[in-house]
Each structure stands twice: as structure tokens, then as C-alpha cells.
Design goal:
The complex is a heterodimer of chains A (about 120) and B (about 900).
Chain A: H1 7-25, E1 29-30, H2 31-41, H3 50-62, E2 66-72, E3 78-84, H4 86-115
Chain B: H1 2-33, H2 38-49, H3 52-62, H4 66-84, H5 86-115, E1 126-133, E2 143-146, E3 148-149, H6 150-159, E4 163-177, E5 185-192, H7 196-200, E6 206-207, E7 221-224, H8 226-231, E8 243-246, E9 249-256, E10 268-273, H9 280-284, E11 289-297, H10 303-320, E12 329-333, H11 335-340, H12 344-375, H13 377-385, H14 390-426, H15 440-466, H16 470-475, H17 484-520, E13 531-536, H18 546-561, E14 566-572, E15 583-585, E16 587-588, E17 602-608, H19 612-616, E18 620-623, E19 637-641, H20 642-648, E20 658-660, E21 674-681, E22 695-699, E23 709-715, H21 723-733, E24 739-744, H22 745-798, H23 803-835, H24 848-874, H25 878-883
Parallel strand pairs in B: 5-10, 7-9, 17-22, 19-21
Antiparallel strand pairs in B: 1-2, 1-11, 1-12, 3-11, 4-5, 4-8, 4-11, 6-9, 7-10, 8-9, 13-23, 13-24, 14-23, 15-17, 16-20, 18-21, 19-22, 20-21
The chains are: A alpha+beta (about 120), B alpha+beta (about 900).
Chain lengths: ~120, ~900
């Protein structure tokens, strides 16, 4: 697999994958919808870089966490839809729990710092 | 997974483009819904998307396994650079193909001959055991691998426990005559003890092997090898159990050996039990050194302790008969080495030579790559300025040399298929020649060679071109030429090494060639021109008395001598230069008895008819030749060679003295015989390239029959034209008698020199190729230097330097590495030639003619190679040279 040179990229990518999986829990979606949902849900705090969205989707597909098919979009255009697989669901659970632990840990650290 | 993606990435890319398109449309639609104008909406969508090319690229890269694509890139790049300079590529390819091909061929032969175990069961535990005669000094040298006497062997086998079993064998020969009037044929055979095949682990393809009760004197059973079974008996399985006629006696075929069994060599056609054609007396002789012993070690016993037991038995035997030639020790030898004994040294020598050539080839390619590196210096500098890593640049350049070497290696393997066949056929006494072929291991070897060569050739130039700081590379202009100094020094030192190795090869080749010419022109001691030789062997069953043998031989000589065109004819058991044949130990009756521990005198045994010496032109030194009535019971006479007199009579007059030869007892004669010396003749060589040995000649009319006769016919013109006439005379005397080895004496000598000629020719070929490579290298370096220094030389000329001064300057520059290399090479060859001194005949390692020749050749080639670029430099037009900047 490809090795990333910059460590900060790693984190972003990790969360992007997780957020994409989370988005797909609500139903199958194509790339644009996925990006829009993430942006909307995050109250536009997060902006999904398209340059990483599509490679991420393909990567998830490679890992068999999502599957894809060609269907018609809301505007009745041909678009590639992504669907969460059973394996992807498990991965999402794993990722979510990891994320919760992480944020709690970070929160603890930051809270202590802030208390002083 | 990644492989699949790699294959699918075109499709994946197309899908992505479609997805991007969908994204743009959706985003545009959203933007329009937000109230933007369609153009603005589209523009905003594109802004949001960013650069679609970047998305594509990152996905493309994600789909490509990184190292693989890099190799692909490097390969493509290297191919492009190589094809741009096709001349360079072709030369380097040819060089590598030649070198790798030659090395692979020799390795193939080496592997088949020396490394691959013989196809016997558990070959690691098999060993040959010889008798070992410890030398007492220069006059009686150490004789390590002495054939074993049968009686010694039987004592070894019954009295020692270190070997699981021991078997004995020796060579024999028979006249194979057909039952239904087939042509008679002289076949080479071997006699092996009954347990030999069992010991080697060989199952007969048909029938069975000998049994212990069949291995006794006078027993007539035979095993056929596959080749004679197919050739003579057309593969008819019913031959097992039938009889065939050997020397007129019926032998029952008990079995047929499998087709792969060609031990000890392919020429053996039949096997008989060891004792079958030996007399009980011979089997009890401790000095009948005619046989080879092969033994299988017990698994739990070390070779040293097993041999120590055998050695102890042998030492006891030696002590029991101090005045017979019974050796005091034994010596082991592996089966491979036993078969390859004669070819091992020349083979190693050739491997070394070809290794040197390969090294020169690598250095040459390396040299050429350094030159190219210089031309690409700026490219490299610019690329490293743009962020290329040094490792990447080195990898790229290595890819180039790997490509060259891989292509060369493939070409080389192809060439070696042809070359191996050629060498295997041209090289006589190469054992297991038929099993020499390319196999996985050899191809593996060629691949390893290929990559080693690529590394050697590529690493140095790659390191040297990329090592500079980029600024230096960019600053360097042709005018200053400063940074090229180190690189030129590198090239010059490469060249020096190249020339040094070439000198070693040239010296080796020169010495071998000279030694071969010495051999070629060696004086055999008799007439060699216009001599027809042939061999026949009178079967004992039909010619059972000395009288019958004599009648045939005399009648034949008489008939042959009366053929028109025949000057004279000689009959002996063998002829000069035809081999060692055998020796007898003797004592001089009139001399005081030998001191204890002193070696018995020994001399080659020969039989000759009265006309033998005059027909072959062997001079009479003293006394007389045999007379016609010295036959059968009145024949206790001997003629000795000059060497025997020199060695054992020390100024005494030998004529009238008596030799006591216990091992030589003609049929029906008392066993304790003294032979009166009637004459002394000139020395002849038993083998070209060996020192003359003391020789005894006995009258052939004493009834000698065993082992066959050789007839030499001295003709007035081309001897082979008379061969049919002579053979017809033999057939008219006995239609059932086969004739073999019909050759001229010069052919006999030539065949014994074939190997010396082959090794000299091959090493010479390698040396000439190396010389060519070195001169190409020299020329290349100097041309490069000239180009580098063009502006400088232009300035010099413009400032008034004379043309011949420039010429001299460049010549000296080119010749310096050549001279240093020459000196270095001469020193190296001093060491190297010591190693193969034993292969040389009549040639000293420091032969002045050869050394002078090598020095002259190398200097001439070096001057020639340097002259062209130097001349070009001296003809420079200063204006053009300066403008070229």
C-alpha cells in the first residue's frame, strides 16, 4: 500500500474515511452527496477536498467497506453510487469507538490544561 | 489486490472522470438553485473541485504499486537513453554477450565434469582407492595414484572393515565376432568384480548382474552396455541368455546395463567378471598394477580411518616383499576427480581466463558508462537541483547497466549453447561429455553473473556521476574542464586494471601456445612421416601356441612388405607416442643386490620384430637388432634404450649383461629368467610431452599375443592410401580378425595433443578478445580526453604550440595508463604463471620470447589506439576549437 510521507495527512485521511462510512449509513449516495452531507452536517465547518474524496472512496471500495454501482442521481443523471457493506459497518463501529476513545483522551488532556 | 488495480487503472480512471463530471453537474445545479447564473455556477463548482487532474493523478498513483512503477519508469528511461546511442549499446551488448557466453559455457562444462555427482546411489560415500608410492627424492618422484594390484585388493577387502564393500575393475579388449557372419569388431571392454554394480547401486536394465560364483577364472559370462545392445544386437531382449563370441570363445549374456550407465567412459561396450580372463597367477601377483578400486564407505566410519586400515594392510604387504614394486601406502580420490584427472587443470585455467575476460568486459562497459556520465553531467546536475534524489539517479543508471547486461546475458546464454557443444566435442578425454548440457543451475549461474556484471559495470560510474554537488556540475563548463579531472583519473585507473589483466591473459596464452608448438615439434625419436599404423589382436583360442601366432605375424609382415609402395614394416605391441602401455621391474644380474629400501629399476615393456627399429628409423647405438631366429625357446634376449643404460648402467657396457625380469615369463618358459642384452637403441617418447623413459624391447617372435599388436607401415607416399590394401592382406590371412585404429603416426601424435591445442587456442582467443576490449577502452578514454580538452588544446595551438608537441602530449597521456598497466600485468603474470607451470612443456614461466612478444604487442596496440585521437587533437583548427564553446 501507498505510504504517506506527511503524518498530519494520515489523521485527516483517517477521519475522512470514517465520516464517509458514517454518511453512507443513511443510505446509498454518490460522491457529491457524500461531500454535501458531510459539509452540511458539520455546519460547513469542514470542507471536503475533492482531491481526497474520490481517492478515499476508491480506497474504501478496494478494502471492500463500500460497494459501488451506477444509478440515476436525484437530477436523473447517471452517477456512481456507493453503498455501505456489512464489513464496512463493522469497520465503522471500530472506527467510531476508536474515535470516541481518542476524543475523550484528548479532551481529558486538554481539560486538565485548561483547568490550570 | 494491487495487481488487479494496476491492471484496471485505465478503467478506474475513466470512471473517475465520469464521477468528476457528475460532481460538477450536481454542484452547478446546486449553485444555480442558490441563485447564481449558470456560468458563475459552473465556475464556482470548478473552483470547489479544484484541479481535476490532481485528483486523477493521485488516484492513478494510489492504484499503482510504487516500486513497480518506478522500475517501469527506469526501464523506459534507460531504454530511451540506450536507443539514442545505439552504437554504444550495440558495442556493450556484444561485449557482455561474448563474455557471459564464454563464462557460461565453461561453467556448464565444469559443472558437468567436476561438480555434478555421478548418477550412482549415494555418491557421496563412494571413493576410488589407489596405491600410493612415496617418492624418495627427485630421481624417484612421488607417484600418488598408482593402479592397484589384484592381490593387494583381495587382501584389502578381506582384512579391513572401514568400507561397506570394495570392488575392482580394469580395462580389457575383445574381438567381437558374429554368429551369422557379421563383421568382426574390436571392442573395448571392462572387467569388474561381481559386486561392482551392486556397490554402485546400478540395476541392470535387462537380466541380472554377475554373481559371486561367476567371478572366477575361465568363466564366460558377459554384460552388455546399452549402446552395444542397441547397435549390434538391435535392442533384441532375447539376447539375454544367449551366447556371443569374444575372441572366438562363447560368452553367455546375463544382463544389459541401463542406457545412462556410461561409466568409466562411453567407449566401454562390454563387461566381464573381473577374474574371468585373468589367470590365477596374475591374481596373486602383488605387482600386477592394472586395476582401479572403487569403495563405498560405511556410514559411521570416517574416510580417514577407513583408509588408515587399508593403508596398514598395504604397508604390511610392502614389508613382506621389499624387492618387488609393492607400494607402501594408499590414496583416495573422488570419482569425479578420478574421471576428470587430466582435464581439471586446463579447465580451471580456462575458467580463470574467461573470468579475467569477463572482468575486462565489465570494466570496459564501466568505462564507457563513465564517459557517458560525463556527457550527461549537466542533465544530472539539473535534475538533482530540481529535487531528484541521489538514490533515484543511481538506480536509474544501474538500470541501464542491468539492461545492457541482461540483454548481453540472454545473448550469451544463446551463444553458450552453441559454444558448449563445440567445446564438448572438440575436447577429447572430457569425461561424461554426452551429459554436458544447459540446465537450471547453469542458467541461474548466468543470471547471477549478469547481475554481478551489471553491478560491477554500473555502480562505479553511477557513484562517480552523482557524487558531485549540483552546483559544481552546473558551474562546470567545457572551458574549465576542471571537474572532469577526477573522472578522467577514474577512467584511467579502470583502464590500467584492464590492461594489467589483459597482459596476464596474453602472457598465459603466449606460454600455452609456445608450449603447444614445442609439443608439436617434439622429436619422438623415430620417423613419423608416412607411417600407417593399425591395431589387431589375435584371439587366444584360435592362436593358442606361440608358433601359430608367429606364423600369422610373419606371414603378415612378409605380405605387407611386398606391397608396392611399402618401404618397410614394423610390428610391435605398441608404437612410439602411442601411450605408456606398461612397465616391468627388473634387476641387473651382474650388479650387486639392491640395498634394502632402494627402489627397483623399472622400464617400459615393448615387443618388437627384427625389422622394427630400422623400419621406424630408431637408431642402433650399440650391439645389434634381433635376428629372425630369436624366437620362442631361444629368445631370451632383450634390447634396451639409451635412457635405460644412462639410468641404470652408469658407464658400464650393457652388452652381454643380463636383466632379471621376474614379471615377464613367456608361456612354457621357466619363470626365473634372465634376458641377455644384445643391443642398445635410441630413445623414443611414449607420449609427447613426457620425458623419455627407460625401455626394454623383447623379441615379438617369442610368441607374444596378449593385448594386441600394432603394425606400422612405412610407405613411400601418402600412407592412408595404402590402408585398404594392408587391411585386405589381414583379411585374407584371417577373415574373422578385426582391425582397429587405422591412422597415421602423425595422427596418433596429433590426437594426443588435441587437448593442449584446444586449451592454447581457447586461452589465446580470450586473450585476443581482451586485447581488443582493452584497445577499445584506450581509444575511448583518449577520444573522450581529446573532446574534453578541445578548447584547451585550441588555446595552446593558438598560442603557438607545435602540432607534434600536441601529438606528443596526447600520446603520452594515453600511453601512461597503458605502461603502468603493462608493468602491473607483468608482475601479476609472474604469480599467475607459477600456478599453471605444470601444464607447460619445455617452456619456462619467464620465457623471454613470450614476454617480449606480449610487451611488443601490447605497446603496438596501445600506440595504435592512442594515435588516432592524438592525431585528431593535433590537427585541431584552433578557431573552431575556441568557437565551439
Amino acid at each position: 500500500m501507498r505510504k504517506e510521507r506527511q503524518p498530519q495527512n494520515e489523521i485527516v485521511k483517517g477521519t475522512l474515511d470514517m465520516m464517509i462510512l458514517r454518511t453512507l449509513v443513511g443510505g446509498d449516495a454518490h460522491g457529491h452527496t457524500v461531500a454535501k452531507v458531510i459539509e452540511h452536517t458539520s455546519e460547513d465547518l469542514l470542507e471536503v477536498e475533492q482531491g481526497s474524496l474520490y481517492p478515499a472512496l476508491h480506497r474504501l471500495e478496494d478494502r471492500k467497506w463500500v460497494s459501488s454501482y451506477w444509478g440515476a442521481s436525484e437530477n436523473n443523471r447517471k452517477a456512481k453510487f456507493y453503498r455501505l457493506t456489512a464489513e464496512g459497518r463493522k469497520q465503522l463501529v471500530r472506527e467510531t469507538s476508536r474515535w470516541c476513545k481518542m476524543t475523550r483522551a484528548i479532551g481529558l488532556v486538554m481539560g486538565e490544561q485548561g483547568g490550570q | 489486490m494491487s495487481w488487479l488495480r494496476l491492471l484496471r487503472r485505465k478503467r478506474s480512471d475513466a470512471e473517475l472522470q465520469e464521477e468528476i463530471e457528475v460532481f460538477l453537474t450536481e454542484e452547478t445545479a446546486d449553485n444555480v438553485a442558490r441563485g447564481m447564473s449558470p456560468e458563475e455556477a459552473r465556475r464556482q463548482a470548478k473552483v470547489k473541485l479544484g484541479n481535476p487532474q490532481k485528483v486523477r493523478e493521485s488516484l492513478w498513483a494510489q492504484n499503482s504499486p510504487l516500486p513497480l512503477t518506478n522500475i517501469g519508469h527506469d526501464l523506459k528511461y534507460a531504454l530511451r537513453t540506450l536507443s539514442r546511442t545505439s552504437g554504444f549499446s550495440i558495442i556493450t551488448f556484444a561485449v557482455m554477450a561474448l563474455c557471459i557466453g564464454a563464462a557460461t559455457s565453461l561453467f556448464t562444462i565444469e559443472r558437468s565434469v567436476l561438480l555434478r555427482p555421478l548418477p550412482f546411489q549415494d555418491p557421496g560415500r563412494l571413493v576410488m582407492v589407489y596405491e600410493h608410492h612415496r617418492g624418495a627424492g627427485a630421481s624417484t618422484p612421488d607417484f600418488t595414484y598408482n593402479p592397484v594390484a589384484a592381490a593387494d585388493f583381495y587382501d584389502w577387502r578381506s582384512m579391513t572393515r572401514g568400507f561397506e564393500d570394495m570392488a575392482i575393475m580394469r580395462y580389457a579388449g575383445y574381438n567381437l565376432t558374429g554368429e551369422r557372419g557379421d563383421l568382426p569388431e574390436a571392442v573395448r571392454a571392462a572387467a569388474g568384480s561381481w559386486n561392482l554394480f551392486q556397490l554402485l547401486g546400478v540395476q541392470p536394465a535387462l537380466g541380472r548382474a554377475f554373481t559371486e560364483s561367476e567371478d572366477r577364472p575361465g568363466n564366460s559370462v558377459v554384460m552388455l552396455t546399452w549402446s552395444v545392445f542397441q547397435r549390434r544386437f538391435v535392442g533384441d531382449e532375447k539376447i539375454v541368455g544367449r551366447q556371443i563370441h569374444l575372441d572366438g570363445k562363447p560368452f553367455t549374456v546375463v544382463g544389459v546395463l541401463p542406457s545412462w550407465f556410461t561409466y568409466p567412459d562411453v567407449g566401454i561396450q562390454l563387461w566381464v567378471p573381473y577374474k574371468a580372463d585373468a589367470t590365477p597367477e596374475l591374481l596373486q601377483h602383488h605387482d600386477w598394477h592394472q586395476s582401479q578400486v572403487v569403495a563405498r564407505l560405511r556410514p559411521d566410519v570416517s574416510l580417514a580411518s577407513a583408509l588408515a586400515q587399508v593403508g596398514a594392510v598395504q604397508y604390511q604387504l610392502h614389508l613382506q616383499s621389499p624387492h618387488d614394486p609393492v607400494n607402501e601406502d594408499v590414496a583416495p580420490r573422488s570419482l569425479n576427480e578420478d574421471l576428470a584427472g587430466n582435464v581439471k587443470k586446463p579447465l580451471k585455467l580456462m575458467l580463470c581466463a574467461v573470468g579475467c575476460m569477463l572482468l575486462i568486459g565489465c570494466l570496459n562497459v564501466s568505462n564507457l558508462l563513465v564517459a557517458r556520465g560525463a556527457a550527461r553531467q549537466r542533465e544530472i546536475a539539473i535534475r538533482s537541483a530540481l529535487g531528484a534524489q541521489r538514490a533515484t539517479l543511481i538506480r536509474e543508471q544501474l538500470t541501464e547497466s542491468v539492461l545492457i547486461c541482461a540483454a548481453g546475458g540472454l545473448g550469451g546464454i544463446g551463444m553458450s549453447v552453441l559454444a558448449t557443444q563445440f567445446i564438448a566435442h572438440a575436447w577429447r578425454d572430457l569425461p561424461t561429455a554426452q551429459s554436458i548440457h544447459l540446465d537450471g543451475a547453469v542458467i541461474g549461474f548466468a543470471c547471477v553473473l549478469m547481475f554481478a556484471a551489471a553491478l560491477v559495470a554500473g555502480l562505479l560510474p553511477a557513484l562517480s556521476t552523482t557524487g558531485k554537488t549540483m552546483l559544481k556540475g552546473l558551474q562546470t563548463s567545457a572551458r574549465t574542464g576542471a571537474s572532469s579531472v577526477s573522472r578522467t583519473a577514474l577512467r584511467k585507473s579502470l583502464l590500467t586494471v584492464e590492461i594489467a589483466i589483459t597482459v596476464v591473459l596474453l602472457v598465459a596464452a603466449g606460454l600455452l601456445l609456445k608450449s603447444f608448438m614445442r609439443l608439436r615439434s617434439a622429436d619422438v625419436g623415430c620417423v613419423t612421416e608416412n607411417i600407417l599404423t593399425l591395431k589387431y589382436s589375435l584371439p587366444e583360442k584360435k592362436y593358442d601356441t606361440p608358433e601359430k601366432v608367429n606364423i600369422f605375424n610373419e606371414a603378415l609382415l612378409e605380405r605387407v612388405r611386398s606391397i608396392p609402395g611399402v618401404r618397410s614394416a614394423a610390428l610391435g605391441n605398441t608404437l612410439p607416442a602411442a601411450g605408456y602401455w606398461g612397465d616391468f621391474a627388473f634387476t641387473v644380474k651382474e650388479h650387486p643386490p639392491l640395498k634394502a629400501g632402494e627402489d627397483l629399476p623399472e622400464g617400459l615393456m615393448r615387443w618388437a620384430d627384427p625389422g622394427y627399429f630400422s623400419a621406424l628409423g630408431i637408431p642402433l647405438v650399440n650391439g645389434r637388432f634381433f635376428t629372425n631366429d630369436e624366437r620362442v625357446a631361444r629368445s631370451y634376449k632383450v634390447i634396451v634404450s639409451n635412457q635405460l643404460v644412462r639410468q641404470y648402467f652408469l658407464g658400464d657396457d650393457p652388452i652381454g649383461k643380463h636383466l632379471h625380469v621376474p614379471a615377464h615369463a613367456p608361456a612354457g618358459a621357466p619363470s626365473d629368467l634372465d634376458y641377455e642384452i644384445v643391443g642398445v637403441v635410441g630413445d623414443t617418447l611414449y607420449q609427447v610431452g613426457r620425458e623419455p623413459k627407460a625401455t626394454m624391447y623383447f623379441p615379438i617372435f617369442e610368441g607374444f599375443a596378449g593385448g594386441g599388436n600394432m603394425l606400422a607401415v612405412h610407405t613411400a607416399s601418402e600412407p592412408l592410401q595404402l590402408s585398404v590394401t594392408v587391411q585386405k592382406q589381414i583379411a585374407s590371412l584371417d577373415p574373422g580378425l578385426p582391425v582397429s585404429d587405422v591412422r597415421t603416426l602423425n595422427q596418433v601424435i596429433g590426437e594426443s595433443l588435441v587437448n593442449a591445442s584446444l586449451s592454447a587456442t581457447l586461452v589465446l582467443a580470450f586473450a585476443i578478445l581482451s586485447l581488443l576490449l582493452a584497445s577499445v577502452g584506450l581509444y575511448g578514454v583518449l577520444s573522450y580526453l581529446t573532446t574534453q580538452r578541445t578548447p584547451e588544446l585550441g588555446i595552446r595551438i593558438a598560442l603557438g604550440a607545435q602540432r607534434d608537441q600536441v601529438l606528443q602530449l596526447m600520446l603520452v597521456d594515453g600511453l601512461r595508463p597503458a605502461l603502468i598497466g603493462l608493468g602491473l600485468g607483468l608482475v601479476l603474470s609472474l604469480a599467475a604463471t607459477r600456478i599453471f607451470q605444470s601444464l607447460l612443456f619445455g617452456t619456462k614461466p619467464l620465457d623471454p620470447v613470450v614476454l617480449t612478444g606480449v610487451i611488443a604487442t601490447l605497446l603496438a596496440v596501445a600506440v595504435l589506439a592512442s594515435l588516432v585521437p592524438a592525431w585528431r587533437a593535433s590537427r585541431l583548427d584552433p578557431m573552431r576549437a575556441l568557437r565551439s564553446e
